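step 4 of 6: structure.
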Amino acid sequence: EVQLVQSGAEVKKPGESLKISCKGSGYSFTSYWIGWVRQMPGKGLEWMGIIYPGDSDTRYSPSFQGQVTISADKSISTAYLQWSSLKASDTAMYYCAARIAAAADFDYWGQGTLVTVSS
Amino acid sequence: SSELTQDPAVSVALGQTVRITCQGDSLRSYYASWYQQKPGQAPVLVIYGKNNRPSGIPDRFSGSSSGNTASLTITGAQAEDEADYYCNSRDSSGNHLRVFGGGTKLTVL
């Protein structure tokens, strides 16, 4: 069974750094793209970027390029999303999702990680 | 980047048919995928490709496309279909990049 398990909720202050994780299991982690989607409170889904863990090829939506870093550690089947300096506007639910079985974008999703940035 | 436009809200009577649309230039060349999201839950893929349903998705969900418009049709809407629906397709900014539409809130009356 394919599973994507994300790290727990975070509460941070503006200017702090953060790295959230997404551990994949039940499939060949290195063979499929995995990415991140933002959902701000009460808003829609925003496609952030994607990584191929096999060779770390990473692509970012222009809206998120330079704002976040997506990485992966294939030795532990885990993808990451990180910020070097959080802003209040980064407050959102973040989902990881994988592109595995379907000829679509993301067909398997994590449970989401809520990030709250507040002074 | 590409844009995908959806109506913010649509309603349907229980058991009737509803079509949710998504417009964008990229849809002239690429199929849309459709996601259902219920409150407090992660999105779920319901339609992808020309008209494909992942395992477990009821056959009352179907997809179609014409010109720059993709459509998700629910034939015989059920109370449990009340949710937000998002289309998704390629972004002209680059390969492997995708973009979501703004979402449609479906209310089943």
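step 5 of 6: annotate
 - The CA atoms of residues 54 and 69 of chain B lie 22 Å apart.
 - The mean pLDDT of chain B is 94.
step 6 of 6: archive
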